[in-house]
Write a structure and sequence with these properties.
Blueprint: H1 2-34, H2 38-43, H3 56-64, H4 67-98, H5 104-116, H6 123-133, H7 140-148, H8 151-162, H9 166-174, H10 179-190, H11 192-208, H12 211-216, H13 225-236, H14 239-270
Length: 275
């Protein structure tokens, strides 16, 4: 039995190392290439450490890649999406958790179906709505999509709110609070851990999304970090410059995750168990 356990442990560790290399090696190659010249990439191994380092690729990306505009647009989308989405999703979750109304079960069923269906099946209809609203090729187009389609966020908020004793609501109501004041002064402060977690996940999702900005705001003045990278691919003409652009686009999401990874895990598990 001990021998079998040792073999199983070796197999697990070997499998882990293989999958880790599959993920890490492409990132490492891209990072090294971003500090090399085209000549170094042609002559050296892809895993060779860059000697000497060159930052010219990043300077070229900054000059030719419309990076400041892309960063500004991505930051605006993330900022407004996180704020509006957190408020709307938490309000809907509060209503579903605390109030009884007709067709509530049907609403939950439709919510579940909406989470299971892939988003692209409604793309034609959604594109027509954006055109008719007159917001095509503006920052408002992806913003409306981001704040209106995150059904999973409503579900996670509801799991948190279900853990809050209804007696807190009743005490606040006795003190004269309206339903909105109960939500704002009692419920929302308690679900801050969930809000922090969902805000980080939503920020990373918006930063990494290429399809929605590319489809709904194709103008260069509305470029985001991902669409900037997409257009830069055809103009760079160099693997070293393209690698630098990839690293620039990856950095915001990686930094957010590394800074707040503990909050992400804590927030995802805090509302998972009923006591």
């Amino acid at each position: 039995m001990k021998k079998k356990n040792n073999l199983f442990s070796i197999f697990n560790h070997t499998l882990f190392v293989i999958f880790a290399l599959i993920v890490i090696l492409p990132l490492l190659i891209t990072l090294f290439s971003s500090f090399k010249t085209a000549t170094q990439i042609a002559k050296e191994s892809v895993l060779a450490f860059p000697k000497p380092f060159t930052f010219q690729n990043y300077i070229d990306v900054y000059k030719d890649g419309n990076m400041l505009v892309a960063f500004k647009n991505s930051a605006l989308l993330v900022f407004f999406t996180v704020i509006i989405n957190s408020l709307l999703a938490s309000m809907v979750a509060y209503s579903l958790s605390r109030f009884e109304f007709k067709l509530k079960r049907l609403f939950f069923f439709l919510l579940s179906v909406g989470m299971l269906l892939p988003g692209f099946i409604a793309e034609i209809t959604r594109f027509g709505i954006i055109i008719n609203l007159g917001v095509y090729d503006t920052l408002l187009a992806p913003l409306l999509i981001y704040v209106g389609t995150d059904l999973m966020q409503i579900y996670i908020y509801k799991q948190f709110i279900d853990q809050i004793p209804p007696s807190l609501d009743e005490s606040a109501m006795i003190d004269g609070c309206s339903y909105f004041k109960i939500y704002w002064k009692v419920i929302f402060p308690v679900i801050i851990p969930a809000t922090a977690t969902l805000a980080i996940l939503k920020s990373v999702a918006v930063l990494n999304d290429m399809f929605t900005p590319y489809l709904y705001m194709p103008s260069p003045r509305n470029a985001t970090m991902t669409t900037m990278l997409m257009t830069y691919v055809g103009r760079s003409g160099s693997w070293s410059k393209l690698s630098a652009a990839v690293i620039v686009v990856m950095l915001p999401g990686i930094i957010l995750y590394l800074l707040f990874r503990k909050k992400i895990l804590a927030g995802m598990t805090a509302g998972a168990v009923k006591e």
